């Protein structure tokens, strides 16, 4: 599941946790254009396939203002349905939860309208913000983009800093290509010996990947960055993101 790194994520997380308590559910998330801004711990504990299916249900009903759909979860609850309830707060912004028989949809709509009213400016800002690195992260100017994957939870974020004018491909394409051809082995750890990092150099850029615990970070550097410094810079970048409580990674 693709997530959003936004400077106000901690505020949105607190708001969502309180809203989930009001709905009496452990499973809730806030979606921005199909990407997860924040979610409750229970939502992240759902199987990757279940989260993907729930996201598809919301996307299929994007032209409505609210949904109340019975869903069977293949792993969590294959025989007894949950109710997937969701309310469109702004165009492209949905708050969703898995509920039992109560509350009814009208009550959910009323709760959502009151609960999220003060957060609408923040949601609008997060929705229209480009997929760039948050300004709160003081990163090296040689970093052009990054792909951060949580290998256990199954979430990822793809951000760019500035495109390399010498390369016609955007940073996201380069990072995806590097991940699927090289870094995916660090994700699966299916090699005879554990490999914790890898790198690749070209005429216009360099890419370095580092696996640390459950996190896998791929960083796109400009070609001017010395190869021997990439490891330290990647380590510092990962630490900066993971330790930033505002981002809620």
UniProtKB/TrEMBL annotation:
One of its GO terms (biological process) is vesicle-mediated transport. Residues 143-244 form the FUZ/MON1/HPS1 third Longin domain. GO terms for cellular component: cytoskeleton. InterPro entries: FUZ/MON1/HPS1_longin_2, FUZ/MON1/HPS1_longin_3, Fuzzy. Its main location: cytoplasm. Residues 24-117 form the FUZ/MON1/HPS1 second Longin domain. It is found in: Cytoplasm, Cytoskeleton. It comes from the Eukaryota. Keywords: Cytoplasm, Cytoskeleton. PANTHER family: INTRACELLULAR TRAFFIC PROTEIN-RELATED, PROTEIN FUZZY HOMOLOG. Belongs to the fuzzy family. This is CCZ1/INTU/HSP4 first Longin domain-containing protein. It comes from Cuerna arida.
